[in-house]
Amino acid sequence: MSTHVQHPLHPQRGRWAIAVHAGAGFHSHAPEREKEVRRAMRRACALAKEVLKSGGTALDGVQAAVRVLEDEECTNAGYGSNLTYDGKVECDAAVMDGRNGAFGSVGAVVGIKNPILAACAVLSHSLTPQPLGRVPPLTLVSSPARSFVASRGVPTTPPEALITPRAHAAWAHWRKMIDEAGEAPAGEGVMCDTVGAVCVDVGGGTAGGVSSGGVLLKWEGRVGEAAIFGAGTYATPRAAVSLSGTGELLIRSALARSLALSPAISPAFSPSPSSSSSSASQAQTHPHPHPHRESDPHAVFAQALQDAGPDAGGGIALLLDPEAGGGADLVWAWNTVSLALGWMSADDEQGEVRIVRRREGEKGPGAGAVRVLRCPGGEGEEGEKGGEEEAF
Questions:
Q1: What is the 8-class DSSP label of residue 184?
Q2: Distant-in-sequence, close-in-space partners of 148: CB < 8 Å, separation ≥ 6
Q3: Exposed e or buried b for every residue in 188-215, given b needs 16+ CB within 10 A?
Q4: What are the CA-CA distances from residue 39 to residues 27, 45, 164, 199, 353 (Å)?
Q5: Beta strands in the chain (DSSP E)
Q6: Which has more confidence, 247 or 273?
Q7: Alpha-carbon torsion 79, 82, 86, 87, what sign?
Q8: Whose CB has fewer CB within 10 Å in the chain, the N or C terminal residue?
């Protein structure tokens, strides 16, 4: 039974927004590497834009954007993913529909170039009534997951076709280091984790999605936050969240769900003020540009990451604001070295892509926000183009 409260459509018709991320962790300063990531995010947003302008749902937009990111060698999802300790590609992915709470995911799947399609297939199946009351799965893993989604038309590929020279070189380097000295992977040769997207469609529907090759040299069969309900992505009628980072930390904190249901982000789903979390209360001490919300969303986001653990990760959240007349805000936070993100909307079809970084010596998280859909009549236009960033 869904825990979502159903709202009438927000005054959002004909308006849409898409935001993507290409991981929280470490992004190379090398100009060509930066350009690769920026181009990938721009292409992902551009394809989702066309889907949404053609009347596609938020779920369609998320699927389109994440599929582009999975096809890019520079990201750690689908083609070019990090390799397991034994040199294989095993991927996780999940999607969630904010209209009805539907969810689907796959974990540790091999030979699937676009795991986001597999997650969508599981979600679709979960909505289909089964004979004799049989309960359909929300998550499938490993070889049975591959067989299941292949039977529903998801393309498969030889597992080795997903291994790129770049990923293999990084694996060989760090596998040798681990075997000889026991050092953990870190630094420029290691790609960041999960990619993802959040979206609102022209009917006011929301969705979120994530896809990941997981951490480099992970154990075979390991499943990260990108496949776990409430950890890597979550969506309600008012918010969609997509995260990246150290899967085990995000899973322990059910971080995506906690954020999406927090008083700062989805007031209609939040507990009474007397039971507000300490991180939300703390965030009230920071000035913020969200007067219709109980506390500052990007401060809450940043504090939640710190509570999850040092270098836990980062991500994005798209927040609908019906009290402000139908606007939408994109907020982001990260407590890793860097976070890559981008967005486009009906108010800004050219959009913007960024790789945000902590300043040298900074230990706390960084965070930012931008109004991606203005309120009718211009209310709340501050920060519309450049957004804001702040360290906590």
A1: P
A2: 121, 122, 140
A3: ebbbbbbbbbbbbbbbbbbbbbbbbbbb
A4: 14, 10, 19, 19, 9
A5: 17-25, 91-97, 103-109, 139-141, 195-200, 206-212, 233-236, 239-245, 313-321, 327-334, 338-345, 348-357, 366-373, 388-391
A6: 247
A7: positive
A8: N
Phi, psi of 306 (to 5 degrees): -60, -40
Q: Which residues participate in catalysis according to the annotation?
A: 194
Tens digits of per-residue pLDDT, 287-298?
A: 344 444 556 887
> Is residue 178 exposed (0-12), middle (13-18) or buried (19+ Cβ within 10 Å)?
middle
Could you tell me what percent of the chain has a pLDDT over 70?
80
Using DSSP, state whether 46 is helix, strand or coil.
helix
Q: Is the pLDDT of residue 304 over 60?
A: yes
Q: Which residues of 216-245 are buried (b: 16+ CB within 10 A; e: fewer)?
A: bbbeeebbbbbbbbbbbbbbbbbbbbbbbb
Rg (CA), the chain: 19
Q: Which two tokens stand for residue 174?
A: 């760090």
Contacts of 351-360 with C-beta under 8 Å, sequence gap 24+, read: 351/42, 351/45, 351/49, 352/385, 353/38, 353/41, 353/42, 353/45, 355/27, 355/34, 355/37, 355/38, 356/332, 356/389, 357/27, 358/334, 358/391, 359/391
Terminal C-alpha separation, the chain: 38
Calculated CA dihedral for residues 42, 44, 48, 49, nearest 10 degrees: 10
Q: Which among 260, 252, 277, 363 is positioned nearest to 315, based on CA atoms?
A: 260
